[in-house]
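Our preliminary data section would be incomplete without showing what the modeling component actually yields. Below, a chain of 438 amino acids is followed by its predicted structure, encoded as tokens that our downstream tools consume directly.
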Amino acid sequence: MENYVSNIFFAITLVVGIGYFVMNVRKLIRNIKLGKDVDRNDRKPERWKNMAKIALGQYKMVRRPVSGILHIVVYAGFVIINIEILEIIIDGLFGTHRVFQKPLGNSIYGFLIGTFEILAVLVLVAVIIFWFRRNIEKVKRFWNKEMKGWPKNDGNIILYFEIVLMSLFLVMNATDVTFQQTGAGNVISQFLAPLFQDFSSDQLHVIEKATWWVHIVGILIFLNYLYYSKHLHILLAFPNTFYASLNPKGQLTNVDSVTKEVKMMMDPDADPYAMPEDSGEEGDPEKFGASEVTDLNWVQLMNSYTCTECGRCTSSCPANLTGKELSPRAIMMKTRDRLEEVGNNIDLNGGEFKPDGKQLLDDYITREELWACTSCNACVQECPIGIDPLSIIMEMRRYLVMEESAAPQELNMMMTNIENNGAPWQYSQMDRLNWKDE
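Predicted structure:
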């Protein structure tokens, strides 16, 4: 009877944990879909290659070898070790114990569990080094002004999570008397088992069962914690790298209606009603550029949720390095914060957004930040999972220029000169070659 109660309680815990996760995933997808549509289904072989190379293969992580290799250890270890969750779920639902040991045999099962134990130790070592770099060595990119409060705590919480989960896994194996007696796969836990030699078999069973429960409940808590954490990239890195832009870096997007006007200026005989080839626009857009998260496209919104807050973009940004206000990481974090606020507004108002008097521009991202950007693409190049902060900056600049005529004076002068003289300089085209007479 006790086993049945335990199995039922486990099933309820599993359903609640997975159900809450699914609810958050649906909210995540809803929020991302608030963005404008953009077609990123072209050149699929290149996209699959990017995803395999960058998200799965961690290609860009190892450009910084220390953190890159440690991240691969944690990534591979955590994913592979959690394969054991399948056995835990079956054991929890049906009251079995190490259900795969008998069908797989001691050799195969021992090899798998032994591999998991070695990886668990490697993950522990890597996580402790990460904690040291973040809190003792205080690597500069982890201590920018945007990395205070929750962002700072989040980085440590996830490290503590991993330490606890890996430790529980090893203790669970060390206190499993039957598993230790078999001697198959206990490559690490055999050295922990002597720590519990003074406990009776009943006490060991209680410790093993307690660590088993805390381990699986901890995994479910961790799964649901992801939505609120920068570690959501564990799930989103794959679609993010698949849908990343394949255009050459520095190539800006054009507004079709503006392209039409430029073509008409260059060719007065052009058909004024002809739109650029393959355009999806009908006339002028409702708004040029972006001042709110809903003006951005869905890939840019997915970028904001995928941001790992690692700071590689900011540490490579020439504007930030020279003391200017801009931090590409902060651009992504602020975009995500505003998107979350918009999503919560929709939830509180029955599925409709109720104007709250705020927007992404000015209330979250300042104009000073936007105009500090040199559009050099360093942030895009450095991001280990293909995030593009520059595209958001350029869309918001486009809004300032085309909707508010709020560009800096120097830029306004340049654009006026281009309009009047066909060049950035303040003299007519007729005088353009005067320099050769000097």
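The two ends are 102 Å apart (CA to CA). Residues 101-135 form the longest helix (35 residues). Preliminary results of this kind motivate Aim 1 of the renewal.
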